[in-house]
């Protein structure tokens, strides 16, 4: 007698929704999301879709009421609770389109809790499309199995970031002129943390001095090579997760 296939199957698509999720909840899907499920993934009546909204964990839902451009998903069972990620922020200067997209995508995959764009003197970009970047993070969360999406804060000037920095949170400062070894710095400062990465042109001397003078700042060395801004952000965030985050368990 053939075995009953597992449900939901591992191949079930994942979708971020705004609606509340719970047993028996009906979630209407239309627009681009419906096109993705119906035309790309070929979802049919009774097929499984995994849903998450950043609040209620992940739920397996069954497709029904399928029409040409929309469908309804009925939540059947919770498959994952809402994730608990380390209290880690990425404070990154805005960089060129394409590169900032990569940072948002990889920061989401790595489990960063909050992303704060920081405007500095040498930034070549002074505006960000929050809707586009939010969509990038949602897509990354769908792909990597996260049940939440990082908070994307409004852009803040470096001066304001330092002035309003919260007590009890270490500000790891990736300084191209050198600092503590990453393993030593991260191990010595467990708990809530943040990583500050500069723009393509780096920080000015005045900015570097102001950061180093801040009581929460811990300058870091990123090794002997000068890294691109996006490489520094991704590599340093991965190192933090390895030492103090959810890779260390």
Question: Can you tag this structure with a few keywords?
Answer:
249 residues; alpha/beta; Ribosomal Protein L25, Chain P; Alpha/beta knot; 2 domains; seven-stranded parallel sheet; five-stranded mixed sheet; 7 helices; 30% helix; elongated
Protein architecture, described:
This protein is α/β, with parallel strands linked by helices and 249 residues long. The protein has two domains: 14-80, Beta Barrel (Ribosomal Protein L25, Chain P), CATH 2.40.240.20; 88-243, 3-Layer(aba) Sandwich (Alpha/beta knot), CATH 3.40.1280. The protein has helices at residues 31-40, 99-110, 130-144, 158-163, 182-188, 205-213, 229-243; strands at 14-16, 26-30, 48-52, 58-64, 70-80, 88-92, 114-119, 151-152, 156-157, 170-174, 193-197, 217-220. The strands form two sheets. Strands 6, 7, 8, 9, 10, 11 and 12 form a seven-stranded parallel β-sheet that branches. A five-stranded mixed β-sheet has the order 1-3-4-5-2. The longest helix has 15 residues, at 130-144. The radius of gyration is 21 Å and the shape is elongated. The mean pLDDT is 93.
